[in-house]
Amino acid sequence: MAGFEQINYNVDDAVAWVTLNRPARLNAWTNVMECEVRSAMQKADRDDAVRVIVLSGAGRGFCSGADVQGMAEMFAGAAGRTISEIVREYQDRNPVPKCHGARSDFQKRYSYFPSLKKPVIGAINGPTAGLGFVIALYCDIRLASTEATFSTAFAKRGLIAEYGVAWMLSRLAGHAAALDLLMSARLITAQEALALRLVNRVIPHETFEQEVKSYAAELAHSVSPRSLRIMKRQVYDALFQTLCEAAEEADVEMFKSFDSEDFQEGVKHFLEKRKAAFSGK
């Protein structure tokens, strides 16, 4: 799509494909990429022709983390200023756009994926480290190639658990595993990531792209977009709710669904033994 320098964006069969596109650098993350990914995600979320979003990387990697070489070059010309001053200035100039109605938890610099109404599939096709690891964890569903590897990397750079990754990681893999992965910064395989519940599936690399497409198409066409939208919000809300609160919210949404077009279509296509034609309303 015109206007993007470091990502590719295209829509095919109701699926928006957002592809990090710096393959020579294993899609190392830059300030430009940050802005372009956010713009693409918001564009896809607003587009009625899009029902599912897939985030992946060009070439053999998903995202190797922040572009260390680029940062070193920027800091070398900083004229005596501290790194923290430069980073803070950039963040002040580029505030995170607010999403009306979303929890404040999901309106931070990289935690906004849960605030998107549509499901975000992370197609983890190769090495994933540092900030790339953070981005992957904020996807709703993660499909990993057998060639994928994962590392938090932060401790090996003298950094800390950035951008809320400690919160997400401990909820996905548990307290002990989160501390292990953060403190050791060790490299793990896709199979170990599966065992730790960091990914939903591991797919042979040879068929990875096709199986991701098939799964995305299934979500785009065989289930109700309205159901996906509401269930996504319910799951993320539940992280902050008691069981009673979650059940009460479910009751409210259940009765709303009875009056929806998608519920009527869900019943009709089942009885008529045909493919569904959900409107998302």
Give an account of the 3D structure.
The chain has 281 residues and is an alpha/beta fold. It has two domains: 7-220, 2-enoyl-CoA Hydratase, Chain A, domain 1, CATH 3.90.226.10; 224-271. The protein contains eleven helices and nine strands. The protein has helices at residues 31-46, 68-76, 83-93, 131-138, 165-173, 175-184, 190-195, 208-221, 225-238, 243-258, 261-271; strands spanning 7-12, 15-20, 52-57, 120-124, 127-129, 141-145, 149-151, 188-189, 201-203. The strands form two sheets. A six-stranded mixed beta sheet has the order 1-2-3-4-6-9, sandwiched between helices. The longest helix has 16 residues, at 31-46. The chain is globular. The relative contact order is 0.11.
Please specify the SSE layout and strand pairing:
Blueprint: E1 7-12, E2 15-20, H1 31-46, E3 52-57, H2 68-76, H3 83-93, E4 120-124, E5 127-129, H4 131-138, E6 141-145, E7 149-151, H5 165-173, H6 175-184, E8 188-189, H7 190-195, E9 201-203, H8 208-221, H9 225-238, H10 243-258, H11 261-271
Helix pairs in contact: 5-6, 9-10
Attribute tags:
2-enoyl-CoA Hydratase, Chain A, domain 1; 3-stranded mixed β-sheet
Order of helices and strands: EEHEHHEEHEEHHEHEHHHH
Q: What is the straight-line distance between the termini?
A: 29 Å
Q: Look at the structure and give the CATH class of the largest domain.
A: Alpha Beta
Known CATH architecture of the largest domain: Alpha-Beta Complex
CATH superfamily of the largest domain: 2-enoyl-CoA Hydratase, Chain A, domain 1
Radius of gyration, Cα only, in angstroms?
Answer: 20 Å
Poorly predicted ranges (pLDDT <50, ≥5 residues)?
Answer: none
Helix content: 40-55%
What is the topology, as strand order, of the major beta sheet?
Answer: 1-2-3-4-6-9
Which oligomerization state do the chains in this entry correspond to? single chain
Number of helices: 11
The average pLDDT is 92
- Taken as a percent bin, the fraction of beta residues is 5-15%
Number of domains: 2
> How many strand units?
9
Please describe the biggest sheet, giving its number of strands, its sense, and whether it closes into a barrel.
Answer: 6 strands, mixed
Structural class: alpha/beta
Shape: globular
CATH fold annotation of the largest domain = 2-enoyl-CoA Hydratase, Chain A, domain 1
